[in-house]
């Protein structure tokens, strides 16, 4: 598709930034044609020099501009900008929160719908919040390095301070890196498809401080494996689980299907909402525990349970929302497609002495249709899908079952807008303001809770 661009290379033009991309690039429009501008913030009026026009894809890039904005953070670390770990670092935190609120309202507006969006619930300290790190490992000049990829590439930039991660996790990465160097275990090489260690994943319980180290390897066994595991335990007393994940494929997918516990338990534990959760290497667990408690409390409050309800928790992961809801409902049915997550969810129900929860391993869209066929009549349905949002068939079977309320926890406002439109076609309407919760400070990711009620 060739698009006629209203700008050409080397044009110097005045624009207003209206949006940000997920990489934190400012977006301005000239006759509906998008221009992507490094480091620019929404609301800024600037003069730009167009550096690239890609007519077939319908965008242009621009650099070379100057502007002053009260919301600009000037002491931005260039390394973080290069990696894209914190693409909104150049925007002051209160402005980040406003941007996220505005982003949801704007996406609905583009779909011809005015919605009320409450101010984004933010953090007191919007750095060092992540309870999980997943870092690539590469050889650079003959030495094993850990860090993060340069944006839009697989070039590793060595890093020791990851800015948005729990600092105890940063320290653990350095210690594991040093031990891998000491035992001369080579990093994986994507081009030759040789070498051993591809990635290191570290998870640390926010309350429990239990730590899990996952070594993701091309090979079934690591060189000097027993000594390495022994030394990791000694160097990191918080470690309760060391896991080997084997990924022998030439792929961008981080984890493979084989997971073996090399030391301790296959899971670590943490608490959330006063409940205890076992978390295994491949299970989803929210990365910002402080904000997750706010998010889940909001979902529970909005569900408005009295203790008599049947609730479905679709995309339930290890059962975090399901168990928090189970304390206030008659029964909860949860579904997730990852078998390990559902195993964790069942253990978690027992750990917390909650017998009114049942979990199924399936695609949520398939299980929803099954529950509908089985005559399940939920009073409330909670959905917390991945970024791609809900399958249309799931929305259809939900509406057929006719719950009074749907509580939609979304990590992508674009798919939220699409899915809400489908619910509205089927007789549901948004009730009250949409509530954004900042799960990912310093990044443009937007999490929110929306309530839909049956008209
Ligand atoms: C955003 S997470 C939410 C998990 C959980 N509610 C929580 O907060 O910890 C999305 C979950 O959807 C699961 N998932 C992805 N696609 C799915 C599908 N088609 N059917 C069921 N679960 C799916 C993932 O395994 C993941 O656990």
TrEMBL record:
InterPro entries with a match to the protein in the record: MeTrfase_TrmA_AS (IPR030390), MeTrfase_TrmA_CS (IPR030391), NA-bd_OB-fold (IPR012340), SAM-dependent_MTases_sf (IPR029063), TRAM_dom (IPR002792), U5_MeTrfase_fam (IPR010280)
CDD domains (alphabetical): AdoMet_MTases
Segments forming domain TRAM: 6-64
Binding site for S-adenosyl-L-methionine: 286, 315, 336, 384
Active site feature: 411
GO biological processes: methylation
Enzymatic class: transferase
Molecular-function GO term, any one: methyltransferase activity
Gene3D superfamilies, sorted: 2.40.50.1070, Nucleic acid-binding proteins, Vaccinia Virus protein VP39
Family matches, as PROSITE patterns: SAM_MT_RNA_M5U (PS51687), TRAM (PS50926), TRMA_1 (PS01230), TRMA_2 (PS01231)
Keyword annotations from UniProtKB, A to Z: Methyltransferase, S-adenosyl-L-methionine, Transferase
Keyword S-adenosyl-L-methionine: yes
Superkingdom assignment: Bacteria
EC number: 2.1.1.190
SUPFAM superfamilies in the cross-refs: Nucleic acid-binding proteins, S-adenosyl-L-methionine-dependent methyltransferases
PANTHER family given in the database record: RNA M5U METHYLTRANSFERASE, TRNA (URACIL(54)-C(5))-METHYLTRANSFERASE
Family statement: Belongs to the class I-like SAM-binding methyltransferase superfamily. RNA M5U methyltransferase family.
Official protein name in the record: 23S rRNA (Uracil(1939)-C(5))-methyltransferase RlmD
Gene that this sequence comes from: rlmD
